[in-house]
Amino acid sequence: MQNTLEIKGLYAGIEGKEILKGVNLKISQGEIHAIMGPNGSGKSTLSSVIMGHPKYTVTKGEILFNGKSIQELAADERAKLGLFLSFQYPFEIQGLSFLKFLHAAYKAQNPLDTSSIVKFKEKIEQAANELHMGHDFIERELNVGFSGGEKKRAEILQMMVFKPKIAIMDETDSGLDIDSLKLVAQTVNKMRSPQFGALVITHYKRILNYLKPDFVHVMYDGKIVKSAGAELAQELEEKGYSQILKDAGIKSAGVKLA
Amino acid sequence: MTDSRSKERAIAQTDYSRYDFSYSTKNYDVVFDKGLSDEVVRRISKIKNEPAWMLEFRLKALKAFKEKPLPTWGPDLSEINFDEIIYYMRASQDNKKSWDDVPADVKKTFDRLGIPEAERKVLAGVEAQFDSEVMYSNIRTDLEKKGVVFLSMDEGLKQYPEIVKEHFGKIIPLNDNKFASLNSAVWSGGSFVYVPKNVKVDIPLQAYFRINAESFGQFERTLIIADEGSQVHYIEGCSAPKFSTQSLHCAVVEVVARPNAHVRYTTVQNWANNIYNLVTKRAFAYRNATVEWVDGNIGSKITQKYPAIYLMEEGAKGEVLSVALAGKGQHQDTGAKAIHLASNTTSTITSKSISKDSGRSSYRGLVKVVRGCKNVKSSVMCDALLLDKESRTDTYPYVEIDEPTATIAHEARVGKIGEDQIFYLTSKGLSEAQALTLIVLGFMQPFTKTLPLEYAVELNRLIEMEMENSVG
C-alpha cells in the first residue's frame, strides 16, 4: 500500500493568531518534497501542526494519513503511524541518555519487537558509524552539550532507527558545515525507497543539490504559493523570493524577504 | 486508543503488591497497648534487659519529650495523636543469624520486597527490621574477621557496652528536639556499626526497615563509628504497607567519622502516604574525614529530615545529596545542615525535589561558620521541578556566617516542564506519561547514579509507578 500524507485547506494558529492560511499539500511514499520560503512564512508551524503539537489550534481543513483524519491523534500516536519530525531545535533532556531515549521511543513504536538492548545498541552503533558519530555519543545525555551539528545528526540517527514512512525535516541543513551536510544528504538518499517519503523544509538550495527533490514548493504567508519540480529551487536561487512571488502575482509588501 | 491500552498493559505488568501489600506477619508475641508512659519505657528496657544507664537515659528523654512543645515552624504535625500509637511490638523472639532460621512468613515478606537472596548475599552485611525488632542480620565472614561490627543496636549495646555508652546520645543529645527525645525514650532496633582503623568495607552494609503493623511507631536508632582511616557505605531501605490509620517513623542516626575516615550513609525510603517520617541524622567529621548523606525521600505524609554534618576539625568534608518526590497530600520538608567548626572545611549540599498533583516540597537548610574558622567553603544548590500549577516548592536557606574568609555559594532553581519539551519526546512516539517519567528520572539521575545497581533499578521502578499513577 502506498502511504500518503495529505493536507487539505489547512488553517491553524496559536493564541488566536492565524499562521497557516489554507495549506494544500500531498506527499506519498517514495517522494521527496521540499518547502522553501522566507522567515515567518509558516514552514516550522506547518511541521509542528502535522506532528500534532498541542499549542497550535487547527481552525479549518484536514490532515489525512491514508485518507483518514489524524487531527484527533496525539503526537505519539502520529509517530506510531509512521510520521517523523526532525526538529530544527532539538530539546536537551538532562540525565536521560541518548540510548535510553532511543530504546524507549523505539519500543513504544515497535511494541512487538522483543530484541534485546544489546542488539539494539549494535544497531545504533552502526547508524552512528554511518553518520561519523563516535560511540560515546550514544551514552551522552540527550542533546545536552551537543553542538548544533551534533544535534542535527542525532535527529537523523533517530530517523534511521525509527524508519518512518514519511519524515519531515525542519531546517535540518541550517547550522551544518558542508561535510556534515553532504553526510546527512547521503544518509537520506540511502533511505530513499518506495517505502520512504520526506518533506524537507529549508531556506537554502544547497541541501537540495544533494537530495534532488521530486517537488519544490514555495511557502509564503501561510500558503503554498507555487509548486513545481526540482528546477524551481534553481529558479529561486537565481531570482530570489521577491521576484518569484511577484511572478506568481503576490504582493509581498511589509514582509522582509530573505 | 493506544494510550489507554499501553496504560492497561503497564498496570498489568506492575506488581503493586511488592510495594504496597496488606499482607502482614501475624504472629506477634509482644504487642503493647497504645500510649506512652514511664511504664511503657520501663517495660521496653526490661524486655531488652538493658543496663541501668540506658533506662535512666530513656526516662530522661521521655521527660524532655513531654516538656517540649510540638514544633510549629515546619509542616503541620498537629494531627499526630501520641496516645493512639503502639510503641513496641515484636513478631518473633530472636534476631536470626542464619537465613534458614528466619520464619517463613517473614522470609516471604522479604522476598516479596524484591531483594532476592542471591542479591542479598553479595552485600557485605544485611539487617532487616520489622516493626520494633531486628529479624535478621548477618555480615560477611571476612569483614567480621577484620573486626567490622554490624549488629542490631540492641545487640550492639549487649556486646559492646563501653563503645555504645561513649557515643550513644552524644552526637544527638536526648533533648535535641522533640522527636529525637521521643526516639531516645522508646528506641528499639536500628544498627550498630563499628569499622576498625584503616579497614575499608568495599561493598555496602545494608539495612532494611519495615513497618508491618497499623498505628505503630517505629523508632530505630543507629550508631556508626568509623575509626581512623576506615571506609564504609551504609545503605538503608524503608517501606510500609498502606493502612487506614497513621503511623509514625521516628529514627535517630548518629555517625562518628574519625580522622581520615570516609562514611557514606544512603537512605531510600518509600513510606506509605499516611506515615509521619520525622528523622534526626547527624554526623561528626574529624580531621580530613568525609561524611556523605545520600537521601532519597519518596512517600510518607510528612517527612521532616535535615541530615547534619558537624565539621569538627581541619580538612573535614561534608556532602549532602537529597531528592524528594512530593505527590498528592504529601509534604516533603527536607534539607541539610553544615556546621563549620574548624578551618579549611568544606560542605556541599545538593537538594533536588519534584512536586506533582498538588504536592509540596520544601528545602530547609542551615550553613553555619563559626568565627575564626578560616577558608571555609560551602555550596548549596537547590533544584526544584514542578510538574503542575497546583504543586508548590519553597526554599528556606539559613546562613549564619561569623567569619569573613568563608566562601559561600547558594543557588536555587525552579524548573517547569514545558509543553515544547514534552512535545519533543511525544513526537518520537513516547506517551505523555512516558515522556514525563523520563524527564523526572533524568532529573533524579545525579542521585540515582550514586546508588548500588539494585537500588537504582528499584528507585527508578518506584518513580515510574508514582508517575503512572498520576498521569493520564
Please describe the structure with a list of short key phrases separated by commas or semicolons.
heterodimer, A: 258 residues, alpha/beta, Rossmann fold, six-stranded mixed sheet, four-stranded antiparallel sheet, 9 helices, 38% helix, B: 472 residues, twelve-stranded mixed sheet, ten-stranded mixed sheet, 13 helices, 24 strands, 35% strand, globular, disordered N terminus
Description:
- The complex is a heterodimer of chains A (258) and B (472).
- Chain A is of the alpha/beta class.
- Chain A is built from 9 helices and 10 strands.
- In chain A, strand 1 (4-14) and strand 2 form a beta hairpin.
- Chain A has a domain at 4-89 and 164-247: 3-Layer(aba) Sandwich (Rossmann fold).
- In chain A, the strands form 2 sheets. In chain A, strands 6-7-8-3-9-10 form a 6-stranded mixed sheet, with helices on both faces.
- Chain B has one domain (22-432).
- Helices cover 27% and strands 35% of the residues of chain B.
- Chain B has helices at 2-13, 17-20, 38-47, 52-67, 104-112, 117-122, 141-145, 153-159, 161-167, 178-186, 419-426, 432-448, 453-470; strands at 30-31, 89-90, 125-130, 133-139, 149-152, 191-195, 205-210, 217-218, 221-226, 231-239, 247-249, 252-257, 262-271, 275-285, 290-299, 302-305, 308-311, 317-326, 331-340, 346-355, 360-369, 377-386, 392-401, 407-416.
- In chain B, strands 5, 6, 8, 9, 11, 12, 14, 16, 17, 19, 21 and 23 form a 12-stranded mixed sheet that branches.
- Chain B is globular, with a radius of gyration of 22 Å.
- Residues 1-25 and 118-123 of chain B have low confidence and may be disordered.
- The interface between A and B is medium-sized, with 34 and 26 residues.
Q: At the fourth CATH level, what is the homologous superfamily of the domain at 4-89 and 164-247 in chain A?
A: P-loop containing nucleotide triphosphate hydrolases
Order of helices and strands of chain A: EEEHEEHEHHHHEHEHEEH
Largest sheet of chain B: 12 strands, mixed
Strand elements of chain B, count = 24
User: How many distinct domains of chain B?
Assistant: 1
Largest beta-sheet details of chain A: 6 strands, mixed
Q: Can you tell me the CATH architecture of the domain at 4-89 and 164-247 in chain A?
A: 3-Layer(aba) Sandwich
* Structural class computed from helices and strand pairing of chain B: alpha/beta
Nearest-angstrom radius of gyration of chain B?
A: 22 Å
Q: In angstroms, what is the radius of gyration of chain A?
A: 18 Å
CATH topology of the domain at 4-89 and 164-247 in chain A: Rossmann fold
What gap, in angstroms, lies between the N and C termini of chain A?
Answer: 40 Å
Unreliable stretches covering 5 or more consecutive residues of chain B: 1-25, 118-123
Give me the number of helical elements of chain B.
Answer: 13
Classify the secondary structure makeup of chain A into a structural class. Answer: alpha/beta
Helix content of chain A: 25-40%
Major beta sheet, strand line-up of chain A: 6-7-8-3-9-10
